[in-house]
Write a structure and sequence with these properties.
By secondary structure, this protein is of the alpha+beta class. The chain contains ten helices and twelve strands. It has a six-stranded mixed sheet, sandwiched between helices.
């Protein structure tokens, strides 16, 4: 009897010795699984609560045309993920491929309008803008507001002798408003090479936006208000989306407003983009 009792307790002991670790392991892994499930639910809830801000993931590539006796152009890249707005000058004398041979962007614009200019630019580069926007200097001035002003350092483009010849003397800062900006650009154009004269417009426009950053948020609405005075293939939905992107960028102090020029060489036929100019254009249009 005593031996049977001892056998029972020994069997029970060895059984418990085997079961307890197994039960502990089951409870441990069940707890870990429950913890992981709670973490996944919390992460899902967090993702649902934190949405992507409107415009934060957008980028736009636009061809801006300035309607003057000698039309000028800029490529504008609005890039929310990179927090940049880039104004890249494209001389009106830039040569593009056409069915009858090469022509300049300005001549193409004068003969067939901005849509054709945008198409020939695409055919030449192998990539093109998302849309075009053409207006007179006065209309562009209305986009930023008649009361807006900017200070431009003429030392960035003129020598001291050139500045003195224009009456700047030692004070090389030009105080600009939309009403006098085009006259200012026209007065400097004969003193500068083709690329530099084109770049000057990008520099001045960049100054307006840098010094009046609040303008970004209202540009699309202003363009919509001036629709009767512009030529564009941008739809109302396009302008709405561009406006969201510009508002997003305008709210961020880290947004960089940059300018550049598509480099090239003056030839008897026009301004021929070089490899670096083509590369930059493709970077902006990607």
């Amino acid at each position: 009897m005593r031996s049977r009792r001892g056998l029972f307790w020994r069997s029970l002991f060895f059984t418990l010795l085997a079961l307890v670790p197994m039960c502990g392991a089951v409870l441990f892994f069940a707890g870990q699984r429950d913890k992981q499930a709670r973490l996944e639910l919390a992460a899902a809830a967090s993702r649902g609560q934190v949405g992507v801000e409107a415009g934060a993931q957008n980028s736009h590539r636009l061809l801006l045309a300035v309607q003057t006796d000698q039309p000028e152009f800029l490529l504008m890249r609005i890039d929310a993920p990179a927090r940049t707005v880039t104004l890249c000058a494209l001389p009106g004398a830039t040569l593009v491929d056409a069915p009858q041979g090469q022509t300049t962007l300005a001549d193409c614009y004068m003969a067939a309008g901005p849509a054709r200019a945008a198409q020939l630019l695409r055919d030449t580069l192998g990539a093109g803008p998302d849309g075009y926007f053409a207006a007179t200097p006065d209309t562009y001035g209305q986009l930023i507001g008649s009361e807006t002003a900017a200070r431009f350092d003429t030392a960035a483009v003129l020598t001291l002798d050139q500045r003195r010849a224009m009456g700047y003397g030692e004070d090389n800062v030009a105080r600009l408003t939309p009403a006098d900006t085009e006259d200012f650009l026209t007065s400097l154009r004969p003193r500068l090479a083709t690329a530099r004269a084109a770049e000057l417009r990008a520099m001045v426009w960049a100054c307006y936006l840098r010094q009046n950053r609040e303008l970004l948020a209202g540009l699309a609405d202003a363009a919509r208000d001036q629709s009767a005075r512009t030529l564009t293939d941008l739809t109302a939905q396009d302008l709405y989306t561009v406006g969201q992107t510009l508002s997003y960028l305008g709210d961020r102090s880290e947004t960089a407003i940059e300018y550049a020029v598509l480099t090239g060489t003056d030839t008897p036929a026009g301004y021929q983009l070089d490899k670096e100019g083509v590369r930059l254009a493709l970077d902006l249009l990607q």
